[in-house]
Amino acid sequence: MERTFVMAKPDAVSRGLVGKIISTFEARGMKLVSLKVMTPTEEIAADHYAEHKGKGFYPGLISFLTSGPVVPMVFEGKSAISVGRQIIGATRDPAPGSLRGTYAESIDHNVVHGSDAPESAKREMGIWFPEL
Ligand code: IDP
């Protein structure tokens, strides 16, 4: 069993897509381990997206993530990280039927985040769920 970090971004919360995200993961055999609702601080957003600091889209990325409530989650399952990325869809040209392929309005308003590797899953769970 593996754990992955998943987050419904502010557009998912405002558009009422949180339930759809959770039920899609559950339908693929993923078990919800942790969940909360919070509006990210600049600090937590900067920590989460540290690898993108300095890029042209970074200021917009941080202001988007801090614009309203998000729902950070941890899911557990077999190959949870790669299955999660498949469920969510790629950053660019997400597959039809994936969450981003179905719901993303653009590359920067793309509804959901999911860890892309074991190290990032561990790092992101530490940022959003320091109490775990
Ligand atoms: P990921 O969310 O699919 O893991 P990352 O490369 O980690 O993709 O980028 C983080 C987020 O930054 C993406 O989900 C997307 O919203 C945004 N992003 C990435 N590249 C661009 C870009 O070239 N223009 C605008 N936004 C971008």
UniProtKB/TrEMBL annotation:
Task: Answer yes or no on keyword NAD.
Answer: no
Which EC number applies? 2.7.4.6
Q: Which PROSITE patterns match?
A: NDPK, NDPK_LIKE
**Which residue ranges run through the membrane?**
none
In terms of Pfam families, this protein maps to: NDK (PF00334)
Domain spans labelled Nucleoside diphosphate kinase-like: 1-132
The UniProt family comment states: Belongs to the NDK family.
What is this protein called in UniProt? Nucleoside diphosphate kinase
